[in-house]
């Protein structure tokens, strides 16, 4: 479904994004004030943030390192010389009366993010640039009937503005791009991607046009703060624009806001009201010059990124695409998995990857542990079962020490007690029964108690097989090796 | 004792001829007596006397700093912790800084005593000190019935030093605001190389041009004063890492064999005969001292002033955006909305000249005009820098008048702003090229008003200015400042 079809013909949708990603750093971009979230209003405000007379910005070099790291992770070109500029506008939560940003010489040019498409392939979403700028404060209008409150805690925090080319063609691609971008930033630890706290927000540019014709007039939807809302905003906006065009109207170049409650976008300002930001080079900061050695040193710290990890998990561990992407999507889950994977490395040849174990572990993580986490409303980092314990537990299954059924109980016990799985198995005597004699005797006992049913079975009532398994399991307190139990039961019944 | 130079005051304090408290009290009395000069916006008598007491203590225990116990005045655009700092504007009429500027912090650490904050053109925008919200400053060289302007924007600092209301004063220079008032008031004014003194804690006018410096009675005083305030500051990203030399050691060194350039473009139409003669006197002094006088050309000089009046208002338009009534300073009484509050606050809080420059600056940065004005101005600025770089390949220093005329009287000032801007014609080039410049009193004109000559040197060569400036000072035909009552 490349194009949208309406009564008047086909439409192609063109979408570009400007993503504002808050740089992970203890201090702000141009001041030494803290960036801690959730403190009392105006607690993290330095004289520089409040724009007292005479103060000057100084660059936090850690924020620069973080941006370089992001640029490398997103395949961009790191510019050895970039400039800061002043973007001038008045607002109550912008103390300087200008935002220090980068206008025509950003620190990063180009780059791309690869997303999966619906047909299972990959598509490159190209980036125009990444530049650094300072965030504004927050105006709070709903606390007082006639006054606004200003909180400058956020003011001056470093933002990376990641600008894409108009490479996306539908909301699904936008969603995939944002998920992938967020995941990469979290792997890089340069942005926590927390959209609820506003540390990642996006402006969305949408236009529609007839295939094989020039792009249509674009409309910007400002500051949408969740991927779900972005998708709704795009869907609404595309329909709105097509309806206008289908009925012979024209699209105004304007800035709109998305209202989550109604699911609609509405005009914030028209082109005529567009502000003239009067950008000019920031005279308080000399050009930002980077040494190649600094970039090389940062390059050496780049971790394995999601897409490479998915491919490695499939190739080397034999995971399914589904399991691999599920595990890799969140860096904490991938870390957990990899930690669990090596929990038993003493027991196995560390060079040989045991695919069966890896797959079984993936399954136990994605199915069993996830359901425990969901039930308790915990995230992976809050899991009461450690990666090591999950790894050991799965190894106990793999080596037939316990059955999968018993393992589920053990997992719950680990969750409740934090005890090591082997200890639980020993203490509670849960070790699987693998002795032929023991299983056979349990079976014989069960069969002898139900001679009538044995006769029915032999007369063709096959379903009773399960009944006998259950009875025998009961006698072994569920510890009999299920495969062996099956095999021996078959043998006994055919005697 | 109030007529002594800084170096003599220092000696007198260290040899206990008088105490810092005595001297400070003496100046405080004089400030009160000369209130009509309007040199100060804020006088901090109690703080000054307390600081003087502490200095006397330090002197008595032989732990005196470089400027121990010396009463100074501070231009009212340096942030002084706990002391009101207005930048000459209504906008900051009630602003008490919670922090100390780097320059004043260094002075305090050296033991200086601050008498108070000197009057200035509002936000340092002016050349006659008539744009201050706190009223005009009178030049102490005024005669009965004829009040002269002290120059600007550091008019209060110049008047305070010339009127013997302090030993020396801090000042700042964006287009001539140290050198021009020094020239008008018969004083030494040195504007250091851009980046020499930290701008941290200086109310910003035009960030790429602003530089702190001093107005003093003698060249030696300038050397002692500036050595204290020079130096790299990590809080100012444009501050220079260049090492600081002992400037005083260059006082009295010969200029024999040096080449002094005379830029022909500074000989402009309408320059008075007195100024031309003063310039000639400077050349004669240099030649007698063994220097060679060389004609040089700085071909882009004529573009300097118009370019300056694009770049400086552009930067100012952004630098002054923070004065919005939201967080500190003046806020209008009656506002119906945020926009209304901005408009009225800035309408009522800024004076005419400041508003004019904000408008000009906003205009030259606007879409559609940026390339024609601001971008062009930046390009011309590069050409001006190149002119100087080429000249300094041939000569050690440049000599020219500081201003095209002497101090004018109130009422004599030009009534259109552009003519007023011509005051800066010989001084803006140093700011545009980031060079150091010094103004030295050389003689009096036919109206018995001081005239100054200016020396410019390559970047970071303030040592040359001290060396050359001292030669001019020693041989000038300038009456002793003691004449001023």
Q: How would you summarize what this structure contains?
A:
Chain A is α+β, with helices and mostly antiparallel strands and 495 residues long. Chain A has 15 helices and 18 strands. In chain A, a hairpin with a 2-residue loop joins strand 1 and strand 2 (9-22).
* Helix/strand structural class of chain A: alpha+beta
Unreliable segments of chain A (pLDDT under 50, ≥5 consecutive)?
A: none
Radius of gyration of chain A: 30 Å
Mean pLDDT of chain A: 92
Which bin fits the share of residues in helices of chain B?
25-40%
Quick one: biggest sheet of chain A? Answer: 11 strands, mixed
Number of helices of chain B: 15
Number of separate strands of chain A: 18
Indicate the multimeric state: heterodimer
Shape of chain B: globular
Q: At CATH's second level, what is the architecture of the domain at 6-255 and 401-483 in chain B?
A: Alpha-Beta Complex
- Count the E strands of chain B: 11
> Largest interface: which pair?
A-B, 29 and 45 residues
Query: What is the percentage of strand-forming residues of chain B?
Result: 5-15%
CATH superfamily of the domain at 6-255 and 401-483 in chain B: Amidase signature (AS) domain
Order of helices and strands of chain B: HHEHEHEHEHEEHEHEHHHHEHHEEH
Task: Write the topology of this structure.
The complex is a heterodimer of chains A (495) and B (485).
Chain A: E1 4-6, E2 9-22, H1 61-73, E3 77-78, E4 81-82, E5 85-88, E6 98-101, E7 108-109, E8 112-116, E9 122-134, E10 138-140, E11 149-151, E12 158-164, H2 171-188, E13 200-209, E14 219-224, H3 227-246, E15 254-259, E16 264-270, E17 280-281, E18 288-289, H4 292-299, H5 306-317, H6 321-329, H7 331-341, H8 355-376, H9 387-398, H10 404-417, H11 421-427, H12 436-449, H13 451-458, H14 464-475, H15 482-493
Parallel strand pairs in A: 14-15
Antiparallel strand pairs in A: 1-2, 2-12, 2-13, 3-7, 4-18, 5-6, 5-17, 7-9, 8-9, 9-12, 10-11, 13-14, 15-16
Helix pairs in contact in A: 1-4, 2-3, 5-6, 6-8, 7-9, 8-9, 9-10, 12-14, 12-15, 14-15
Chain B: H1 6-14, H2 20-33, E1 40-43, H3 45-60, E2 71-75, H4 102-109, E3 113-118, H5 155-162, E4 168-173, H6 179-184, E5 188-191, E6 211-216, H7 219-229, E7 259-263, H8 273-288, E8 292-296, H9 301-319, H10 338-349, H11 352-364, H12 371-394, E9 397-401, H13 417-421, H14 428-432, E10 437-444, E11 450-456, H15 462-475
Parallel strand pairs in B: 2-3, 2-4, 7-8, 7-9
Antiparallel strand pairs in B: 1-3, 4-6, 5-6, 5-10, 9-11, 10-11
Helix pairs in contact in B: 2-3, 7-15, 9-11, 9-12
